[in-house]
Design goal:
heterodimer; A: Nucleotidyltransferase, domain 5; 5-stranded mixed sheet; 5 helices; B: Nucleotidyltransferase, domain 5; 2 domains; 6-stranded mixed sheet; 8 strands
Chain lengths: 154, 138
C-alpha cells in the first residue's frame, strides 16, 4: 500500500503547455488573453491621466463706453491697472505697467513680485493689438490671477 | 441547481473562474476607448495655452464651449459655425439659458485679432463674464 502511494505522488514529467490544455475540463487557456487585456487597460488608464487636464481662467468682458472706464460688472470704482500689449520686432511689449514699455516676461515678474495683500481685488485691464498671440494674453492673465487680481479684457 | 462560485472545485484541482473579470475589464476598455474618442472630437485640434492657476469645471455645470482655431474657424459645443451666424446663435443660446457659463477654447497661437471679435460679440449679447480654457501647467 505504501509503495502504491509513493508511486502516486511521484512528480509527473514536464509537459509543453498548449493553449488548449487537457486537464480536468477541456477549454481554452484564458491566461494570455487576460494578460494582454490588463496591459491594454493599464495603457488606456495611464494615457488618460497623462493627457493634460483643463481648467479655466475667469475673465470679465466689460462694456466700454469710455476707453479708460471699465463700468460693467463693478458696482464701485475699483483700483485698476492697465496693460496694452503690442508686438515690436517680434517681441511682445506691454505699455501701462511702468513708465515705458516692458517685455512680457519683465511685467509677469513684476506682477508676481507685488505684495499679494495690495493686489487682491485689483483689476488688470488687458488690451492687445491684433497680432499679439493669444497665449501672451493668457500668460499675463495667469500672472495676475495668481496674485488674486481680477482680469478684464477689452 | 447549484450556486456558482468564483473558485470551481470541479475536476482534480480548484480553478479560478476568470470570465467575470474579463467581462469587467472589457467593459472598462470600451469605456476608455469611447471617452478618448469623444475627447478628441471635442478638442477639435485646438492646442490650448497653459496656466499655473485656474478653476476646475464642476460636473453640475454644462457650459457653452466656443472653440477658436488658429485660423479663426469657430465651433460652438463642437459644431462648426460660420462667423456670420455666430452672434445670432450665441445670443439665442444665452437668451434661452441666461445662466449658462461660457468658455472660450482658443488656440494658443491664434492672433488676438481673431479672438477679439468673438469677445465683442459676446459683450454685445450682454455676456460680461467668460472662462478662458487653459491646460494645467505641470
Amino acid at each position: 500500500m505504501n509503495d502504491s502511494n509513493a508511486e502516486h505522488k511521484r512528480p509527473r514529467p514536464l509537459k509543453q503547455r498548449t493553449v488548449l490544455t487537457r486537464s480536468s475540463r477541456f477549454g481554452p487557456n484564458m491566461t494570455p488573453m487576460v494578460d494582454v487585456t490588463l496591459v491594454i487597460l493599464i495603457f488606456f488608464m495611464a494615457s488618460a491621466s497623462i493627457a493634460g487636464y483643463e481648467w479655466f481662467l475667469r475673465a470679465e468682458l466689460p462694456e466700454v463706453q469710455d476707453p479708460d472706464l471699465v463700468s460693467s460688472g463693478f458696482s464701485l470704482p475699483t483700483p485698476m491697472l492697465r496693460a496694452d500689449l503690442f508686438l515690436q520686432n517680434d517681441r511682445i511689449l506691454i505699455r501701462g505697467i511702468g513708465d515705458e514699455p516692458r517685455t512680457l516676461d519683465v511685467v509677469i515678474g513684476q506682477l508676481k513680485g507685488m505684495d499679494p495683500s495690495a493686489t487682491s481685488g485689483l483689476i488688470l485691464s488687458i488690451r492687445a493689438a491684433d497680432d499679439v498671440p493669444y497665449w501672451a494674453i493668457v500668460a499675463l492673465h495667469d500672472a495676475a490671477a495668481s496674485m488674486s487680481m481680477r482680469v478684464a479684457i477689452r | 441547481m447549484r450556486a456558482r462560485s468564483i473558485i470551481s472545485n470541479e475536476g482534480s484541482g480548484a480553478r479560478i473562474n476568470v470570465t467575470p473579470m474579463i467581462d469587467v475589464v472589457m467593459v472598462l476598455i470600451v469605456f476608455y476607448l469611447l471617452v478618448g474618442q469623444l475627447a478628441i472630437d471635442r478638442k477639435a485640434a485646438i492646442e490650448l495655452p497653459s496656466s499655473s492657476i485656474g478653476i476646475e469645471e464642476t460636473k453640475e455645470q454644462d457650459p457653452i464651449i466656443i472653440g477658436i482655431t488658429a485660423d479663426g474657424s469657430l465651433t460652438i459645443n463642437g459644431n462648426a459655425i460660420d462667423s456670420n451666424r455666430f452672434a445670432g446663435e450665441i445670443a439665442g443660446m444665452h437668451t434661452r439659458a441666461p445662466g449658462t457659463p461660457i468658455r472660450i477654447r482658443a488656440h494658443r497661437d491664434a492672433p488676438f485679432g481673431v479672438v477679439r471679435p468673438i469677445m465683442n460679440q459676446l459683450r454685445d449679447a450682454k455676456i460680461s463674464r467668460v472662462g478662458l480654457v487653459t491646460e494645467q501647467r505641470p
